[in-house]
Please model this.
Amino acid sequence: MKHIAMYIGSLVKGGAERVMCNLAEYFYEQGYRVTFVTTYLGQEEYDVPNAVWDREPQEGYRELTVLDPDDHEHKVYLNDNADGIRRVFTALPLSDRGGRIANFRKREKILRDTWKELRPDVILSFLGKNNIMAIRTSRGLGIPVVVSVRSNPSREYGSKSLDLSMRYYFPKAAGVVVQTTEAARFFGSRIKTKILPNSIHPDFINRDVVPFDARSKEIVTVGRLDDNKNQILLIKAFKEIEKEFPDYRVVIYGDGEKRKEFESAASEHVSFKGRVSDVPEKIAGAEVFVLTSRQEGYPNALIEAMSLGLVCISTDCPCGGPKDLIDNGTNGLLIPMADDDQMVKDLADKLRSVLKDRKLMGRMSAEAVKVRDEYNPDRINSQWKDYLEEVIRK
Model:
């Protein structure tokens, strides 16, 4: 039974974490041993089917004290003997901490000892510093390491020290998984890249598509309310056209540090719903989805909205995820990156162009749904399997 160790900071609810959890479940169902190696226990984490850890005491489970990202201690309960997806925590205990350099070396030793104990056939790491640490701490152990960059590489490795470390260590990896052609070009020929886009979550792809004529006159967006997701563009753009389309409403799903600021800028035709657990149910019957991000990897929210047949409008943001998904004018619309004032104007124009042309909206909706075939979970997961099997064989 081949063993995959999946390394990430925690399983807190985010795009990269969701992809890794989905992959863990897929590989487990395919007969692999799967072990999560996480630094922390997140406050709100994804539920993982077949997990053999729990936050509550369970018969036959051992108690372990772990840390969250803010260094608060928590109890978690592990079953080392049950069949299922296992988990190892690698945060440096508070009692062992000293100076900065000493702490770094101790963290490295914990991680290296973890690899020695697990002896996986392959390590799959997601995100930033984790990727560098996975390569660095597994040197000389004979374990291939695949790292995955989940957003714009120039952002994920934006500091000088991270950029230098990435350029030194990434050529030593068995492979670097990226999500877009633009991200692959960033790394050039010296680093072995593999493009593996996100799949559509089954909760979206298994739903029936609402007929376009039966949809409500809603424009929706989903994501954390922050400067990068930049929902203020939608708020301002809709304010420019709301008198022309009085029957339409904007509904914003998500929460974050910019919520109060965005709420104060919004008209009465914009509502904020906060975080919700049933996104497919909430947005399936809307007409339009808007993504206003400054940067994205492969935007889950966009591909999910397309799979439900929403007419999608997105910024053409780096590192090219929306451009890989949207054939501009056919299955959605792209807005060129510019200053915010210009993008507000462009978004208002795009919204106006679709809202006044229902035949165009119907055609785009029908074309958008076709992402279900190309980004079907079975298809994308099998590509991951083929790739990791190739790495293991080498």
Observations:
- Residues 239 and 267 are 7 Å apart (CA to CA).
- The mean pLDDT is 94.
- The chain has 16 helices and 16 strands.
